[in-house]
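Handout, page 2. Input:
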Amino acid sequence: MNLTERKYFVNNLTKVYTDISGFRIKLFEKLSFNILESGVTVLLAPKGSGKSTLLKIISGLEKPTEGSVKLDGTIHFIPSKGNSFPWMNVKENLLFGLNEKDNNKINEIISFVGLDGYESHIPHNKSRGFRFRIELGRSLIRKPKFIVIDEPFDNVDSKTKIDLIKLIRKITEKGISIILTSSNITEALFACDKLILLSAPPSSILDQIDNNLSSERDDNIFESVEFVEKKKYIESKFDYVLSGSEFLLTI
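Output:
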């Protein structure tokens, strides 16, 4: 695969930390994959595998030990703990740090992320889903080309999760590329246009899907035709291996 022929990509990315005793910890080595120009690219890997560091490197917030990232345009990063200010209301959160303040645009984005009528509410003690909508609004008002999100669906219930997945997919209709991480195969499949699987045997993936579906089935969230078709598509791709990389599967 000649990644340099693609518009946006990660090429031979390696990250090594050295602790105070001089011991070297290698998080990942020679990772190479393409990023969608418009759509949702999901990086699926277990917790503690270096996904957060990888996203910081992609966002330009941290330097790799080796390798490069090719992205053009504004990048907005949403960490796993979020970036909303709990003491500011919804509208103040979106306005914070902006030089130009267009009230019509602010109101349009508040409505788009599903917070119409909540402009004066503060996120303190609000649900993770509520705060995440604010964080998406803070991203959109800055007109990014890329929104990079670390584990956006952690600590939300099944219904909220599917609502947020639909919102994220709606954002890509604006021509925005979204890169996000997940450690849950079910939500990753439902959210993705492109899925990149890290450090998991492909033969175990269907078991993970079925196990996760069992826990979600009460709400019938992931029983849709769209999800079933994605599951079949994943099954057909199990023989694809991206050589020279720790990533085992990409679609």
